[in-house]
Amino acid sequence: MILDSLLQIVCVIIRETVDINEILKRKEIEEFKLTEMIEKTDQEIDEYIKEKEPDEERQKLLFEVFQKIKLEQSIENIEDDVAAESLNTNKKIIETLFSQIIEPDEIELKDTNVCIKYRFTDDSKLKAKINTIKKWDRDNVIDTISNELRVPSENISFVESVSAYIEFISSFEEKNYVSRGQKDCTYRLEPSLHRLYKSGYIGHSSQYESTFKQRILYYDNSTDKKNDEELRAYGQHFGLPTNYLDFTEAHLISLLFAVEDYDYVTNHSIVYFVDALSYNKDVIKSERKLVDFSDNELKTTLQKQYSDKSYFIRVGNCNERIHFQKGCFLKVEPNDSLEKLFEKYTKVAIIDKDSKENILKELFRIGITFENIYPDKDNMVRTIRFIKEHM
Fold first, then answer.
1. What's the distance, CA 27 to chain centroid?
2. Strand order in the sheet with 291-292
3. Across-strand partners of 182?
């Protein structure tokens, strides 16, 4: 049917011109650039033309016109497919980009415009994201921390300067406390091993530590003399997953940990202060702020009696960083809830995200720098650069 219609129109046109390009430009021909023509083989077209047209010269001309129309149809289809593929690729890229914030419900690409659509109902992803952001903004963050961790709100302070931070810690018996700084107040206080695995902690820990113990000897043969706890603490500082949470007895160092990534302003930073002396006294009946795990007899006794309890320990100066950072650890057992720790023994400083850089400058002015807590060449240069570029 399509061949009949096209043949009739071409026969009319070639009475006026036999120029192939002119024929193909005619409006009547444009209407026949349809997908049906592609489905016809050259043999079918040739046989059809010979059946309808006895003149050999006109046969050749008609065949060439039909072939050119087929070719243009093929090109247009390919271009359409490429355009569709490009459109889908662009949509995926845009979706990935915006999914870092929140996944769009719909993406429209039209000409030079991109339309990103989100539903805004109570059960929508966008509404949930907005509620989460509001929950952690400066007006609500104290209530959020208090509700989620059960830390009494009177034990939480919003801090915008070093002086305000010092004023807060001077309001309690800080010598009994250890502290921990984190760059994001929304992050859970959880050991790396527990974040990675939901069960089988002992087996996973043993595998990590065994491999670390074997391989670290190639880089530091002094590790052969370290006990298991010292080796675990040593590995922790290089990113080895353990059931330890890093704390320090130096609260200004915790503040530096909280603000050192000063460009991170997605959320406020946080410093936890825990009355380690009172906590250990309550949980393991020890009058020690930090249980000294270099005392093998004491360590063995406590591990037998309180194998399911979390408590604060020190492991000796197993590397320079622990020494300079005045480091200690909360040894966290997997089935032991830390609710009591937060509710009864914890105070919190929330560090204003917009004040991080200024607080870091203040710390540098009083001699608390990257080089102080990370004693190596890289952080010496890091300290020099920050002073040069920001102070």
1. 56
2. 156-159, 346-351, 269-275, 177-182, 244-248, 327-331, 311-314, 291-292
3. 270
Closest CA to 280 of 294, 267, 293, 296: 293
DSSP β-ladder status, 327-331 and 244-248: antiparallel
pLDDT value at 85 more than 80 = no
Model confidence pLDDT, tens digit, residues 86-113: 667 776 777 777 777 788 888 887 777 8
Gap between the Cα atoms of 377 and 338, Å rounded: 38
Q: 14-23, 182-191, 294-303: which range is least confident on average?
A: 14-23
Token pair listed for 301 = 């006794």
User: Is the pLDDT assigned to residue 363 strictly greater than 90?
Assistant: yes
Three-state SS annotation for 103-125: CCCEEEEECCEEEEECCCCCCCH
- Residue 227 tokens read as 């006990």
Confidence at residue 135, expressed as pLDDT on a 0 to 100 scale: 94
> What is the distance between the alpha carbons of residues 119 and 130, in angstroms, rounded to a whole number?
12
Rounded Cα–Cα distance for residues 116 and 99 (Å): 11
Residue type, 181: G
- Domain boundaries along the sequence of the chain: 2-96, 156-390
Summarize pLDDT for 33-80 with one digit per residue, the tens.
Answer: 555 666 677 787 778 778 887 878 777 877 777 777 777 766 666 556
Q: How many whole angstroms separate alpha carbon 272 and alpha carbon 112?
A: 50
With left for phi above 0 and alpha for psi between -120 and 50, is residue 21 left, alpha or beta?
A: alpha
Strands 291-292 and 311-314: parallel
Asked whether 236 and 228 are in contact (CB, 8 A), the reply is: no
Provide the 3-class DSSP secondary structure of residue 382: helix
Mean pLDDT of 309-332: 83
DSSP H or E stretch at residue 158:
strand 156-159
Asked whether the beta carbons of 32 and 5 are under 8 A apart, the reply is yes
Place 295 in a pLDDT band, splitting at 50, 70 and 90: confident
Q: Distance (Å, rounded) from C-alpha 362 to C-alpha 378?
A: 22
Give the pLDDT band (50/70/90) at residue 32.
Answer: low
Torsion over CA of 263, 267, 268 and 270, rounded to 10 degrees?
-100
